[in-house]
Amino acid sequence: MALIPQTTVHRIVMHTIVILFGIGAWVAINGVFVELPILVDKLPEGWSLPSFMVLLTQAANVGPLVVALMQAFAPRHYHQNALIYIMLVLGTLSCFLLIFVWDITTVVAGNEHSIAFFALFLVLAFVDCTSSVTFMPFMTRFQSVFLTTYFIGEGLSGFVPSIFALIQGASEAYCKNESFVNTTTNETTYHIVTHYYDPRFSAEVFFGFLCVMMICCSAAFIMLNHLRIAKSFMQEEDQDSHDYDETDVHKSTSTELSTLDPDNGTEFYTRGKEQTLDDITSQTLPSSRRKLSYQQYAYFYLMVLWISGISNGVMPSVISYSSLPYGQLPYHFAATLGAMANPVACFIALFLPVTSELIIAVFVTITTGFASYLMLLAVESPCPILVDTNGGAILMVISQIMFVFTTSYAKVSIGQILRERGHPKSLVWYGAFTQLGSLIGALIMFPLVNIYYLFTPGDQCTTVCG
Question: Domain 287-461 - what CATH class?
Answer without folding.
Answer: mainly alpha
